[in-house]
Design goal:
The chain is of the alpha+beta class. 68% of the residues lie in helices and 8% in strands. It contains eight helices and four strands, in the order βαβαββαααααα. Strand 3 and strand 4 form a beta hairpin. The longest helix is centred in the C-terminal third of the chain and has 81 residues.
Length: 226
């Protein structure tokens, strides 16, 4: 199985360049073999990519932008779906490849398999039965009146300590909220910049298509005039 990554080597959009670098860099870090296909210098690659991206995955103007990822003829996804798989440690599943032994994704798959088969539940039940011990007093039928008072005093002391820790954590929590707001604002600005660059690239694509159509029309008119 060959992973195909459709790229634009001469793209004028910095957002697209960054996304392409992220995809290629992560695949190389995972040692995943892939075939980079340039749509800027090869018209066949461009047409194949546009025809094989599912209609429901295309943008409103119908022109998918790079990077687009395929496994042979099967469509995997674009940058956004690749990024989501990266965050979930499921890139190999996204690519349709088996995860390498010892990887986080392989460990998650093994864990899910164990839970699905019910082995994990059985093991837990067995461990609980082994670890539960009946107090000596209960086995003898004696009451724990004296211990109840000591437990209540211990719980009160724990509650007071918890209140003091909570009061001390309020200031750091406010600082964390401020940091999160700053990060969200920076992320929003970055998304706006990427959207603007993508909009410009789409306009350039549409202009190229229009120029090609006008050129074909002029050739047709010249042939008819001859």
């Amino acid at each position: 199985m060959v992973i195909k990554v459709f790229l634009a080597s001469s793209s004028g959009s910095t957002a697209i360049k960054k996304k392409q670098q992220d995809v290629v860099g992560f695949l190389e870090a995972l040692r995943v073999e892939y075939d980079p296909l340039d749509i800027a210098c090869n018209e066949e690659n461009r047409m194949w990519m546009r025809q094989n991206v599912p209609e429901e995955k295309k943008p409103a103007n119908g022109i998918p932008l790079p990077p687009q990822i395929f496994n042979e003829e099967s469509y995997c996804g674009d940058y956004d779906t690749f990024f989501d798989a990266k965050e979930d440690n499921s890139v190999f599943a996204f690519l349709g490849l088996p995860p390498p032994p010892g990887s986080k994704e392989a460990a998650q798959a093994d864990k899910a398999h164990i839970v699905t088969n019910g082995n994990h539940v059985e093991e837990m039940n067995g461990d609980l039965e082994d670890t539960i011990e009946v107090p000596l007093e209960e086995r003898n039928g004696d009451a724990h009146v004296e211990e109840e008072g000591e437990v209540a005093e211990g719980e009160n002391a724990d509650d007071e300590a918890m209140e003091e820790e909570t009061e001390g954590d309020e200031a750091p929590a406010d600082e964390e909220e401020a940091v999160e707001e700053t990060d969200e604002q920076a992320h929003a600005e970055e998304e706006e910049q990427e959207e603007e660059e993508l909009r410009q690239l789409e306009e350039e694509e549409e202009a190229e298509v229009q120029e090609e159509e006008e050129g074909d029309l002029e050739e047709t008119q010249e042939e008819e005039a001859e």
